[in-house]
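Onboarding guide, step 5: your first structure request.
Type a short instruction followed by the sequence, for example:

Predict the 3D structure of this protein.
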Amino acid sequence: MSHKIALNFEDGVTRFIDANPGETVADAAYRQGVNIPLDCRDGACGACKCFAESGRYDMGDNFIEDALSEDELEQGYVLTCQMRAESDCVVRVPASSDVCKIQQASYNASVREVKSLSDSTISLTIEGDGLKALSFLPGQYVNLQVPGTEQHRAYSFSSLQNDGAVSFLIRNVPGGLMSSFLTGQAKPGDAMTLNGPLGSFYLRDIKRPLLMLAGGTGLAPFLAMLEKIAAEGSEYPIHLIYGVTNDSDLVEMDKLEAFAAQIPNFTFAACVASPESSYPLKGYVTQHIEPGQLNDGDVDIYLCGPPPMVEAVSQDLRQRGVEPVSFHYEKFAASA
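The system replies with structure tokens like these:
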């Protein structure tokens, strides 16, 4: 049985390869046209050193200390010329996709459904036989081409790939190029092109409590993450705080309720910043982070929202004197 290896390059490009039983990751990559930096192939030079972010693998003992130290091995560093996958894995490659001669994947699809969830949010679902070959890590994004133009817009997946269909949450920007297409022209069957996947914001192996912080349509990647967690489970508590500006901006609450019913350790809260809100929780996300959810720093934090939100959360953590084990964030701003 082969295993799927996600190779994440330092410029945000991700390429998936299949590794056969007993095959090294480096050999699997070269077999599929991916030139991971490599020199000796004998575990002696360290040129192929990468970082394994998730998955099980065997490194054997056919490498020397100068190439990979015991401390590095314990931290998760690997030599891809010696690494043999025993499950699906995610490997971070310290080189750009250009250096490794990777071309960004392109997929053709068509519109299945466009739905207005609120005045501020549009749900887009696209489908296509070609998308059945699309792999991505929950939390990543693609560049969607605006039909009839050469322009692209970046959107995070709000679902996993399901029989050739994927979904997105898109902010409805008045006068925006993609927004105008979706609200005024789009119909089922319209052709769309997407390039990717991209991004270093994605769900890692869950090894401790998670705190997820979403702002507006920054909820999208968390819906994909929760879909994966619902399928695989988690022994650690996961809490999501979802913040919006106005009551009408709250969307996909039914999906969050469904995930709370499916995932025993998952809870969530939503808050509205507007002082005129009638919603029970008012204010900003930072006002609703409880000390227990930070677990004295033994927590992984994922944040997706506009730049001011990212800065506000960073400042709040500093003021609390909390340094999480990891803090992954994705900033986004609407395009006109």
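Each response can be followed by summary notes, for example: The two ends are 47 Å apart (CA to CA).
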